[in-house]
Automatic annotation (TrEMBL), chain A:
Its EC number is 2.4.99.28. It is found in: Cell inner membrane; Membrane. It comes from the Bacteria. The lineage of its organism: Bacteria, Pseudomonadati, Pseudomonadota, Gammaproteobacteria, Alteromonadales. The keyword Transmembrane helix applies. It holds the Pfam family FTSW_RODA_SPOVE. This is Peptidoglycan glycosyltransferase MrdB. Belongs to the SEDS family. MrdB/RodA subfamily. It catalyses: [GlcNAc-(1->4)-Mur2Ac(oyl-L-Ala-gamma-D-Glu-L-Lys-D-Ala-D-Ala)](n)-di-trans,octa-cis-undecaprenyl diphosphate + beta-D-GlcNAc-(1->4)-Mur2Ac(oyl-L-Ala-gamma-D-Glu-L-Lys-D-Ala-D-Ala)-di-trans,octa-cis-undecaprenyl diphosphate = [GlcNAc-(1->4)-Mur2Ac(oyl-L-Ala-gamma-D-Glu-L-Lys-D-Ala-D-Ala)](n+1)-di-trans,octa-cis-undecaprenyl diphosphate + di-trans,octa-cis-undecaprenyl diphosphate + H(+).
Amino acid sequence: MSPQNHRPNIWQRMHIDLPLLLGILALMSFGLFVIYSAGGEDLALMERQLFRMGLSLFIMFVVAQINPEVLRRWAFPIYIAGVILLLGVHFFGEINKGAQRWLNLGFMEFQPSELIKLAFPITMAWYISKFPLPPKKRYLAGAGVILLIPTLLIAKQPDLGTSILVAASGIFVLFLSGMSWRIVGGFIGSILAMLPVLWFFLMHDYQRTRVLTLLDPEKDPLGAGYHIIQSKIAIGSGGMLGKGWLDGTQSQLEFLPERHTDFIFAVIGEEFGLIGSFLLLAIYLYVIGRGLVIASQAQTSFARLLAGSITLTFFVYIFVNIGMVSGLLPVVGVPLPLISYGGTSMLTLMTGFGILMSIHTHRRFIDR
Amino acid sequence: MHDHAAEASLFKRRALFTFVCVVILLGILLSNLYHLQILSYTDYETRSNDNRIRVVPVPPSRGLIYDRHGKLLAENQPFFALELIPEKVKHIPETLTRLSQIIPLSAEEQEKFTESLKYHRRFKPLTLKTPLTEEQVAQFSVNQHEFPGISVVAGLKRHYPHQGLLTHALGYVGRINDRDKLRLQQAGEWKDYAGTKYIGKQGIEKFYETLLHGKPGHLEEEVNNRGRTIRTLKSVPPDPGQDIYLTLDLELQKKAFELLDGRRGSVVAIDPRDGGILAMLSSPTYDPNQFVHGISSKAYGELLNSRSRPLINRATQGQYAPASTIKPHLALLGLDENTITAKTRIWDPGFWQIPGVERKYRDWKRWGHGWVDVNTALIGSCDTYFYDLAYKTGVDKIASFMQPFGFGERTGVDIFEESAGIMPSKDWKRMRYNQPWYIGDTISVGIGQGYWTTTPLQLANAAAIMANKGKRFVPHMLKSIKDNTSKIDSPVDEKAPIVLNDQKNWDIINESMMNTAHKSRFKDAGYTAAMKTGTAQVFSVAEDEKYDAETVDEFLKDNALIIAYAPYENPTIVLAVVLENAGWGGANAGPVARALLDEYMLRDSLEFNQ
């Protein structure tokens, strides 16, 4: 890197990355339009979502002020705290909709798996970047332990969506660290070999039903297949240009379940058509691209791995959600990032973007 | 050591590779969308268009409730409401201003409406004002053309024409809340409540909810792409709830209501021939109509916190010491166990002592009744006689004898608000207080005091069994169910009768009760009757202290009780009256019982004379 005669501008001094911020704001405003339509033109719903957006933008801003070095030092203690909280959920958690994910703190309910979503890639990046890269095989065992404990605890809750996201964020760190292709190949092979074990021993009945439903939704059109069928009808009937904002019959006549939360992409497909879906994917690609640029320009291995993992996990959200809504993947509870109605995932994602901005704006402009 | 340059370039290669993967995966998503939205478009469009049939539930109308003579006790009243479809009204504030010139809209109503407008679908009607008077309906109808998008809709609302008269027996309906919903879902009946807003909350309305509610129908409507109905494709009419007739006698209930005149107390009248309840009054009462459309929290708070506790059904939940009203039953026990005979006499000096113990149990008559036998002991309500009898019998024998008369257990009347009262025994006290039974406890039970508590319904029921000489029915209010044009009588639940060792003992006691009536309150009645009064202490007075009504707090004064039936030879009505803190039973509850029996026994001849 060449020495720069750098005068930080106002955005850099505020630790804000403008290109990334613009992408985020574009997604959020698009999300507001869709929620207004999907939520039945309910202004109260809009007010709550706007409040969450404001809050998470603020959190992003605050996190962006924290030097990545601080995160690196605190990574492991936060990870341990997260695992302890997960164990707490396991033993004392509240059962909600058949799944045990919440810890009641008295004044609020708290989902430790969200904390793990953040703490986990930081820990992984901290651990791997201690060694010269690419990592030697003998360090991978430690990484495996760090990865498996929270993943299995979350999968047990059961929260398949989150455990996929957590596992993916760890695997991304390993991959980006330059793990040899042989190990990557072996890893993917062992995951495939694990699938039957997963199917027969670890998955709950309802999860198995979801997979079977995906393979043949028409078999049970009013039961388990209903979500997928209605969602595919909504998307398919959108056509090239869509039925128009507020005019999607599937969503407005309430045939589409969960239409402002996990299935909001079906509303987009129905009301804005292929053009709208394409536009959304383009904005997402832009944000991912910007994230990877930030990662590549980072100055330490820790920062690079962390930024890369956060960006790619964001992509996993998108792929799993749209894949599920359009009938490619089984139904798992992953929201469409920055668009779906709801606060928890938005806070987590925006904290991640705050870390990206912090990494990008805390670089020391010196020649190495 | 770290080779920073190599690590950075390794990372860049890997990052580029993953970016390519991301583009490919997004490409897969996009091609799947292309497949759905372009290639299969016509197929999915057709299926989306087929998704346009909306099923609208039509709630059934609730069954009506009548008294035994067919007089209406609960009805469904039409009401009118003003509704506005936001989408069809251009300038809502201006429209409201114009509208308020025809139909008064308070600032509060307007504000509430504007607020709920924010959270409402634009094409769905929203209630603007309810209820409208008929005059307002007429005024609006004339001007309707000036207000497109606003219309008058009609609905049915439960109404209790006799207001507070029958509140505790009939109960009321109220809006379905989350608890009701959960209960219905668990019972698998929730689907029958699609479109229904109200459900029985108490009394008969709750107990016979399934009879009264009916089954909903539905409309299948074709809707356009804005959710508006284009036409109705199919209509399945609802199955209305069934009308029911109660055993209650509205005129007798009215008379009881007038006689109690808001005083705290209760009246229960039963037809001993089948257990049908003729009157069930709990006083003071309240207007159930205010619960139908939702009571204000202020009004509810007043009811809830009132010292007179109007929300409680005293007839079935009020627990009172029966006092001397159960002396006939105790005497019956004494005769049947041969503890006493009809001729046994004892000397009453005005007090009684457990043999060998100093403490004196006072008779209500301080100077005593002198020589008494069972007949004179009942007529004079001699406490000493029954202290002695209870002492000789023992509490467990009393408890097991009283149990078939319904003491200490729910009668099974057809409302859910019922308490069991307490029939004390040694085991009961051990269980409840973990204390041994003392002889003194038995002595109190001998005059219907101490731990013994009963509800007015239990008293009336036990008196009916006495009058019936052992024949027993489950007291109930449902008389018959209307089925199209005929009435189907509800089956009468008769229990196995009480059979004494000597059935003649029934006659001895009933005759004494008849003597009691005709020597006092019913001396000049135009019919034969039997009765027993009671005066129950609400708080205990020390052994030698004198109870002084003047100095005692109103809520600690004695309760006045009476049981009575008529005619003596072939009883058709049995009643129990309890007046809280009214003082002497004979002087205070007596006139109420006399007036009620007069009403019931003589009204046919009065009507005949008129």
